[in-house]
Specification:
Oligomer: single chain
Largest sheet: 10 strands, antiparallel
Structural class: mainly beta
Strand content: over 45%
Order of helices and strands: HHEEEEEEEEEEEEEEEEEE
Number of helices: 2
Number of strands: 18
Length: 287
């Protein structure tokens, strides 16, 4: 068979398949296609980094407490890093009509072993957002008059965390509260939460010291920490965090090693038992 005949035979064989490919797929066929019934997004990162600046544009209005007042300042987080330790953060996204009150539902899982390096927390004079254009460094928006951090960078290691986010007409609630929640957590953080290299600094030039802790382990006395909590946005109270349960029904434990006050000399280890925050609400709002 010469080349022309071979090409003709191939075209005839492929023609029915081509025609089929051009036909619109029906709903029953679409339902079998992976991804049709929602979207899953996975994130694996060894080093997701960022800086964050909160500008207080009017400073401490009216002054007081030894402060002149009225000069813009900034709260700065320098070099926050997220590391998933080779595992995947997943977000499963579904849209639901919900009988005329539609909801976007996002189920998020953070894998065990994820480490958040908080970056240094410090305060600086503010030059205003976008004071210098063309770059993305901290120097474009702050006047850093002191290199001493208020809070040194620390590493927070998490067990697996599950949370559910509802946007739109949220309907989910958490135990102990009647308000619907934008973010709801009902999970056990296996192994609890470990914080390493905590240091709170007093930056006074001649007499400053620090409160430092080698490691902080927070759990519920059961090898893990049960968490039932919600986060909501309120028109009056801003961001409202509702804690149904942290740890067990009777609270959680906090174990701190190598606690040092002021001079850096350790006073020993400190253990807090039965810290009960169940039923607590925290509101964060501007003023």
């Amino acid at each position: 068979m010469n080349f022309k005949k071979l090409a003709l035979a191939a075209a005839v064989a492929v023609a029915p398949m081509s025609a089929l490919a051009l036909e619109p797929m029906q709903d029953d066929a679409l339902s079998a296609v992976t991804g049709q019934d929602g979207i899953t997004i996975g994130l694996t990162t060894p080093s997701l980094t960022l800086d964050a600046v909160v500008h207080d544009n009017d400073g401490l209005a009216g002054g007081g407490n030894g402060i002149t007042g009225g000069e813009a300042g900034a709260i700065v987080i320098d070099n926050l890093v997220l590391n998933t330790d080779g595992n995947e953060i997943t977000a499963k996204i579904d849209a639901d009509g919900n009988a005329g009150a539609p909801i976007l539902n996002v189920a998020v899982t953070i894998p065990s072993g994820t480490v958040i390096s908080t970056g240094d927390l410090y305060v600086a004079g503010s030059l205003g957002m976008g004071a210098t254009t063309g770059t993305d460094t901290l120097a474009t928006s702050i006047e850093n008059r002191s290199s001493t951090a208020i809070l040194d960078s620390m590493d927070i290691t998490l067990g697996q965390v599950n949370m559910n986010i509802q946007l739109g007409n949220e309907v989910q609630t958490i135990a102990g509260f009647t308000d619907t929640q934008m973010i709801a957590m009902d999970t056990t953080i296996t192994g609890g939460i470990t914080i390493s290299n905590f240091s709170l600094n007093d930056a006074t030039a001649t007499t400053g010291g620090s409160l430092s802790v080698g490691s902080i382990v927070i759990d519920g006395n059961n090898g893990g920490m049960d968490v039932v909590a919600g986060v909501n946005l309120d028109s009056t109270d801003g961001v409202v965090i509702s804690v149904g349960q942290l740890g067990t029904a009777t609270g959680l434990s906090v174990q701190m090693t190598d606690v040092a006050l002021g001079t850096g000399t350790s006073i020993g280890d400190v253990e807090i038992l039965g810290l009960n925050l169940n039923g607590t609400q925290i509101a964060v709002r501007g003023h």
